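Module 6 notes. Inverse folding takes a fixed backbone as the condition and produces residue identities as the prediction. Think of it as a translation problem where the source language is geometry and the target language is the twenty amino acids. Below is one complete input and output pair. Work through it position by position during the lab.
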């Protein structure tokens, strides 16, 4: 059962994060839902939530972006549908259509890309598409929020009559206007509009000469505004028709509302779905802002957060263009509790809050700003004691409040708990408070809870070194400048640098010496030793970092050289192919040149043609042997099939005849092969031997031999190959004898 309290969430500034996330929502309903987010009660509920956010996050950077899902608040409409005899206005029906259409498009999208967004598809799969709902509304309500003229026969008739009356009103008014203007009764402005009705602007002196209803006067009283009598009669008819139209529209809307009422549960589901998707989208957009990811959620009890950033601090520093330092921290059964010590303003508290806040965020379905290879487990309880929680309202001192907090810790702590305590043991006498803090720490240790505490107490540092699965840690400080480096180092307690910081802040040296004399010698020596060890470790760490950089540079250079060597080898192979091709072309050229010269001498065209065709057929045969032509047409395929059958039959008839001879030949060949292989294996290649590379036609001369490699000179380039890949063409001895 998850029991992460509101106090813990407040201590870790979780509500500040929720406020930031809510700013990315597209609706007020989404914002309100985001602010109500709390840590989830089980890992089984949490995992789908995280996967939904992670899939939405991936959609922000790939081609298949999730469609826009802006929606209207239809809470009021859903409430009205529950009330009998109520009816919705056309604008309300448009909201319903908009929301339903948006949901349908999303469902269609997730169905299409269910392999890309499997969790979001599964979340959407339960929503039912009610096309009838949208079709019914669109048949009655126009996109402009009006009732369709064809919604009923009576409405169409009434609107036809209304248009006719309006035309008559216009005609009668224009007639009265023309008459009064000709008679000189009107002012220069001639007409005006009062209560959406056209009126004549009559000079006050002629008001009795114009029949009609007086509707107003000008400020000076020189003009009176009169509606002509003929127009008034038509206006009364128009009012009656407008009333009848309104009554008919109300009747139609009631019918449409009744037909929509059965879909109220679906509309409620659509609204919830869109709110949920709005919250998921806001989480994903916030994750992109803080460069977050989804770490591995392990079944084993362990935490490994690599390059973890405090999200609030990260965004604040971005605004101010300041660097934010990440922390790497690990908790497991061998490193159950970490005791962080060191001077104030070194980053102890922010490290503590970072780990706590990221764990709470993750368990609330939010991605966190860590390295993608980070991993963590699910905690049932996360307990915090951070800051000066002096309670004026309850008349509790800081220490009394902390003791009350420790009582709750002891009651709730178990092996699925993460506890975070800042300035552990403070608020009372150092010796007495430190002793009690030791007992509390031992209790948490025995209950196998995971935790991180910060402290200045030496006895807690000593206890951490004595307990098997508790480790000391410190925030690194520059010994010379006394500036924090904001790096957590596991394995060694930190010096508080009390006197050094005091001296740097201008406290007289004489006063510092007096203070040193009043402190126990052992404590000063311990603090000094810790300080010295920390300084030496900083130097070693810098050296280690430098060596790592040099190592990575050496690896890069080695990779670069290997790549260059591969490229050179590829070029040499290409040269070899080109050389073979050129040799072939030269051979062709020599043969053609030989034939042409012979023709010039004999002038025998027939002989030239015969020899050329013979040579060409021979070359073609060689080519076909290496590159056999594949049959294309049915006839060719059938011909090849027949030929194969004929050859097979011939082989069968001759197989028995030559079988005995073949055996004898094979025996002779095997004997010869053994002799040849022995000669080849015994042969020692020498410089100036003429050789060929296996599979190549080009002949070169061995220029140099190194171990198992030989350098072959082809005249205009040299290549390197293994001796085992060479074939002897002519030895150097034979060449010398010939000469």
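Target side of the pair, the amino acids:
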């Amino acid at each position: 059962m998850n029991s992460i309290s509101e106090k813990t969430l407040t201590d870790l500034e979780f509500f500040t994060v929720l406020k930031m996330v809510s700013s990315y929502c597209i609706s007020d309903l989404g914002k309100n839902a985001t602010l109500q987010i709390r840590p989830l009660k089980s890992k089984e509920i949490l995992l789908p939530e995280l996967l939904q956010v992670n899939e939405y996050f991936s959609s922000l950077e790939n081609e298949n972006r999730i469609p826009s899902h802006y929606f209207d608040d239809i809470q009021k409409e859903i409430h009205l549908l529950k009330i009998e005899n109520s009816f919705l206005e056309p604008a309300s029906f448009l909201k319903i259509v908009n929301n339903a259409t948006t949901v349908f498009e999303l469902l269609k999208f997730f169905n299409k890309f269910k392999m890309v967004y499997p969790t979001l598809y599964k979340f959407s799969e339960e929503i039912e598409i009610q096309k009838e709902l949208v079709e019914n509304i669109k048949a009655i309500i126009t996109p402009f929020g009006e009732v369709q003229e064809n919604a009923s026969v009576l409405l169409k008739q009434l609107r036809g009559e209304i248009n006719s009356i309006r035309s008559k009103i216009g005609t009668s008014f224009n007639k009265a206007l023309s008459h009064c203007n000709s008679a000189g009764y009107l002012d220069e402005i001639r007409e005006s509009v009062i209560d959406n009705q056209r009126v004549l602007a009559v000079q006050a002196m002629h008001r009795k000469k114009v029949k009609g209803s007086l509707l107003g006067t000008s400020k000076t009283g020189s003009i009176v505004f009169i509606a002509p009598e003929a127009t008034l009669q038509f206006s009364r008819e128009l009012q009656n028709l407008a009333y009848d139209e309104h009554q008919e529209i109300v009747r139609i809307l009631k019918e449409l509302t009744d037909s929509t009422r059965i879909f109220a549960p679906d509309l409620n589901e659509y609204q919830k779905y869109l709110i949920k998707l709005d919250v998921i989208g806001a989480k994903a957009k916030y994750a992109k802002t803080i460069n977050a990811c989804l770490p591995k959620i392990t079944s084993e009890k362990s935490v490994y957060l690599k390059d973890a950033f405090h999200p609030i601090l990260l965004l604040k520093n971005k605004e101010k263009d300041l660097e934010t330092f990440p922390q790497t921290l690990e908790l497991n059964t061998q490193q159950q509790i970490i005791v962080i010590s060191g001077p104030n303003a070194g980053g102890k508290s922010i490290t503590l809050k970072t780990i706590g806040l990221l764990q709470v965020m993750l368990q609330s379905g939010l991605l966190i700003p860590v390295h993608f290879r980070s991993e963590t487990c699910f905690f049932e309880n996360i307990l915090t004691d951070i800051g000066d929680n002096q309670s004026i309202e309850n008349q509790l001192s800081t220490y009394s409040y902390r003791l009350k907090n420790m009582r709750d810790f002891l009651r709730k702590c178990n092996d699925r708990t993460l506890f975070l305590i800042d300035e552990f043991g403070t608020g009372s006498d150092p010796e007495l408070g430190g002793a009690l803090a030791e007992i509390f720490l031992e209790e948490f240790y025995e209950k196998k809870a995971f935790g991180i505490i910060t402290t200045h107490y030496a006895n807690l540092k000593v206890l951490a070194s004595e307990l098997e699965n508790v480790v000391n840690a410190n925030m690194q400080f520059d010994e010379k400048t006394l500036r924090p480096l904001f790096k957590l180092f596991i394995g060694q307690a930190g010096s508080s640098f009390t006197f050094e910081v005091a001296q740097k802040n201008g406290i007289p040296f004489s006063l510092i010496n007096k203070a040193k004399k009043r402190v126990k010698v052992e404590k000063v020596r311990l603090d000094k030793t810790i300080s010295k060890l920390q300084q030496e470790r900083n130097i070693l760490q810098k050296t280690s970092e430098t060596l790592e950089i040099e190592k990575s540079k050496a690896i890069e250079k080695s990779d670069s050289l290997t790549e260059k060597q591969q490229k050179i080898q590829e070029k040499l192979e290409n040269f070899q192919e080109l050389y073979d091709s050129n040799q072939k072309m030269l051979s062709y050229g020599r043969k053609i040149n030989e034939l042409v010269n012979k023709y010039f001498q004999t002038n025998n065209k027939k002989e030239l043609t015969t020899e050329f065709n013979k040579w060409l057929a021979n070359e073609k045969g060689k080519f076909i042997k290496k590159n056999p032509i594949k049959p294309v047409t049915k006839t060719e395929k059938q011909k090849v099939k027949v030929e194969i059958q004929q050859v097979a039959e011939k082989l069968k008839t001759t197989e028995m005849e030559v079988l005995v001879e073949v055996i004898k030949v094979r025996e002779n060949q095997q004997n010869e092969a053994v002799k040849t292989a022995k000669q080849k294996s015994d042969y020692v290649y020498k410089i100036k031997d003429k050789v060929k590379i296996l599979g190549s036609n080009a002949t070169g001369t061995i220029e140099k031999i190194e171990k198992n490699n030989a350098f072959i000179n082809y005249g205009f380039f040299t290549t390197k190959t293994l001796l085992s890949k060479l074939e002897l063409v002519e030895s150097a001895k034979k060449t010398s004898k010939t000469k």
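Reference fact for the lab report: The longest strand covers residues 186-194.
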